[in-house]
Amino acid sequence: MPLELANEAVRSSEGEFLIPEANADQRLLEQWVVRRICWPSNSPIHPWGIKYVYPRPDGLSIAVEGDNMASELANALVPRYDPTTGDVYGVPGCRITETGRDGLVLHLLDTDATIHITGIHRKAWRSRLAETDKEMCRAGLRLCSHERPHEWTAAELAYTGHPGHRAVHRCADGSTAWLASGLLRRIGLLRTMGIPLYTTAWTNPADVGEQWILETQYQPLATRASSHHETFLHLLNNEVWGLRLDWTDSHCSCETEYSNQCTFNGRPQLEQAGELQLRFPRRSAERSARLLASPQAYDAHRRVAVRVPARFSPRARVSSALRHAPEPAPRGPARGQAFRAITNAANQATTADRALP
Ligand SMILES: [Zn+2]
Questions:
Q1: Residues 218 and 138 placed together within one structural domain of the fold
Q2: DSSP code string of 3-61
Q3: Which end of the chain is more exposed for a tag (fewer CB within 10 A), N or C?
Q4: In the chain, how many domains are there?
Q5: Would the pTM count as exceeding 0.90?
Q6: What's the 226 CA to ligand 1 centre distance in angstroms?
């Protein structure tokens, strides 16, 4: 995040959590966006192609890494429907308009929820959108915004399962939207574990509500592989900027031979539904193998990794951290200092991180 935005976030968060929770409508829009972008097909450099986000309770700004995301987002976000099956692709109820030279605004109909996306030049967006429209047309899909630019189409209403005013959601009652939204608003933390090779996510039904699975593969920066998820769990639970989950189940196999993946399950500390499962695989994957074989691609990924200042790394091992309560959060000016240190480190790492291997 640029330093001026980080400073503004610190100033405006006085007395509140540093990363504000989205309001109900905003959460739903953000959840839909995460659902659609969380399995990128274009191998972006940053996790999900996002350079940084700037969250507010009633809105979110997302800066994507460049024109390479035009095709991905045109496919993932623009709502279209199949008149034969009733399936809706893209974000149902979302209408997208252009703003400025490189901006898009996603607006969820019948709500005030909006997401601003920057980083894709208008020419690239229009070109890819036209291509995608042609492809979709050939596949028999119809563009919702052509049919009803300012209202929900019948297909979108039927697909979301809640016809009528403020119809916004297909996935149960939206009770786990806070989790998807919360992850999106903390996407920068995914760059703190090492060199992020790829990041994907998906959902499963679970007895606690919907379970979100976040799988990330990293190239180690530290001598001990477990340092990656130790740091991430620590940062994700920070009382100033974290999601604050209780880690109910953990399987760290970093120093054993019986598994090639570490897994952690987190439940909300508050009365909320849902569960987050973090997976850190070490197996060889095709997409990471491609990156490792290309010095240029690997170097691009290396540059987005953020080295976390030592004082924000956990002092204890995962097993110990899971047993003890997190440290009390600093209050007052110290909160701002902590965040500035993280964001400064992020900015320095992004621009010239020569310390990384
Ligand atoms: Zn581990």
A1: no
A2: HHHHHHHHHHTTTS-SSPPP-HHHHHHHHHHHHHHSS-SS--SSGGGEEEEEEETTEEE
A3: C
A4: 2
A5: no
A6: 4
